[in-house]
Amino acid sequence: xxxxxxxxxxxxxxxxxxxxxxxxxxxxxxxxxxxxxxxxxxxxxxxxxxxxxxxxxxxxxxxxxxxxxxxxxxxxxxxxxxxxxxxxxxxxxxxxxxxxxxxxxxxxxxxxxxxxxxxxxxxxxxxxxxxxxxxxxxxxxxxxxxxxxxxxxxxxxxxxxxxxxxxxxxxxxxxxxxxxxxxxxxxxxxxxxxxxxxxxxxxxxxxxxxxxxxxxxxxxxxxxxxxxxxxxxxxxxxxxxxxxxxxxxxxxxxxxxxxxxxxxxxxxxxxxxxxxxxxxxxxxxxxxxxxxxxxxxxxxxxxxxxxxxxxxxxxxxxxxxxxxxxxxxxxxxxxxxxxxxxxxxxxxxxxxxxxxxxxxxxxxxxxxxxxxxxxxxxxxxxxxxxxxxxx
Length: 391
What we know:
Layout: H1 7-17, E1 34-37, E2 40-44, H2 57-70, H3 85-98, E3 102-106, H4 109-120, E4 126-130, H5 135-144, E5 147-151, H6 156-164, E6 172-177, H7 189-199, E7 202-206, H8 221-224, E8 233-237, E9 247-251, H9 253-262, H10 264-267, H11 274-289, H12 291-311, E10 314-315, E11 322-328, H13 330-342, E12 345-346, E13 349-350, E14 360-365, H14 372-389
Parallel strand pairs: 2-12, 4-5, 4-6, 6-7, 7-8
Antiparallel strand pairs: 1-2, 3-9, 8-9, 10-11, 11-14, 13-14
Helix pairs in contact: 2-11, 3-11, 4-5, 6-7, 12-14, 13-14
């Protein structure tokens, strides 16, 4: 038989030659401050479970009770037989949490972005997308077949000039992360709201890394910037600070009704299982009504960032639980991550295409379940890696 995929060998060789080959690391434990890999214990500084809710007893108990009542799977798409009272209750809870009229659930944040963007715009329309937006936003833009205009990261002036030159367009959509997943910085949301209102653009934001971390109630960047009633399309995930699984879009009831009838990643996808739905509801309650967890997380973030700076490491400007330590090229970043692991800290090297060439980094993240001792031990490991790799 003819080997029609032999070209893959050369592709893989090129990936390896550039130090960009990826492998999986298997965890033998949950998303706790300390994890087990190959029988050894490490401090975990690579989880997006910012409040540690994946292992919270209240969240696990809610999931177990739902599992007993509803079973392991939903059995179908929402529009066939896979819609339960738990789906509706969680959508209502998200809408209340985000201060919108309604919300719609997707099986992941990735599917929420792809489905919503490709439903909202199409050929003849134009999308304005921040150059550092998440891959799910990028893919949603591409699948829409609208014209895509990329603006320099957080450059409101450039974005304004792009929009003002497109007066004849049918529909215009500005789309951005609110907290950027690899840099940890914030989008200039108030300025984006002003631009959208000035030029009649739809504005869609991705709150994946902001929810649970920003705002007095932990609702995210719309609350943090006091623009909850001025952003018409709010997307987010349930898999990061919420500690469960799934994604959502929140907005007006008209918007949600439209997506329920037009978003292909909703219509044709098997719905979330009951255990995930119940876990998300319990977690949102914790986020909103137990702000002390978020306060402690921010205490740890500032302590860790201060320690890294004192060591002499270069940090990118971050206003979130994402703490990027800039190393530069791929090989020294891999060496840095290896030395961290040898000293009991697990946080992988981040390389292209996740970040631009020459901007490789250690992307450290903290959880509210970390203790100060974990931070001290991690800082020692970072100092040792710096002394070896960046001397």
